[in-house]
Amino acid sequence: MRAGSAFPPQRTFAKKRTEVRRFVQNAAVANQGFSLANGHDQFLAITSALGAAVPYVDCWRIKKIDVWAISEGNNHTTVTLTPVGTDLTSNMRNDREQIFSITSRSEAQPAHMEIVTSKEQPLGSWHFTSATNFAGTLFAVNVQIGGGASQYRVTMDITFEVVDNLAGSPLGYGVTTATTVLGTIGGRNILAGMALQGINNLG
Question: What are the DSSP E strand ranges found in 37-105?
Fold first, then answer.
């Protein structure tokens, strides 16, 4: 035994932590939008044997987006990412016009861009896992190819900062998945052409 503090110390019980989700292109991606629901869907827990799931995080934000693109033979790959987050109710918080783009040069040397977000704009700000505007789009992605197959050209890592839902009930967003084992946690594919890697894919 040892002498402890005379008073209970101050603590932060809901701390931020960092999570990374990796996606690999498995189909054509033509101006596909990443929505708030896509973000909510990366932090799901199965709550019903029928596949219902709710987020286990209270809120999340995107800290960074890394994109790698390779060529197929002499056929280049161009990836364009455009923030499009808007506040439709008060015109107070909108992403300014930005267009990020890379083009591959070879099969052996991937093109790479790293987008570091700002908390002052929707792309990098905090989003609660509620049902409010869950279909709203944060950014759009377009993959253009110079020929050849349209899949397995692009890898995208999204670095999230999250706060777990440790107090109170889930905030209202829910979804039905293909996973029926209670308590399973995981994420889902995005952009109708980017497949989640490395963790449970709940379908």
Answer: 44-46, 52-55, 57-69, 77-83, 100-103
**Beta carbons of 37 and 46 less than 8 angstroms apart:** no
Closest C-alpha among 174, 198, 172, 170 to residue 186? 198
User: How far is it, in rounded angstroms, from Cα 202 to Cα 46?
Assistant: 9
The tens-digit pLDDT sequence of the chain (203 residues) is 888 888 888 888 999 999 999 999 999 999 999 999 999 999 999 999 999 999 999 999 999 999 999 999 989 999 999 999 998 888 888 999 999 999 998 988 999 999 999 999 999 999 999 999 999 999 999 999 999 998 999 999 999 999 999 999 999 999 999 999 999 999 999 999 999 999 999 99
Domain definitions of the chain by residue range: 16-197
Fold for domain 16-197? Jelly Rolls (2.60.120)
**Cα–Cα–Cα angle for 152, 25, 87, nearest 5°?**
155
d(CA 96, CA 27): 29
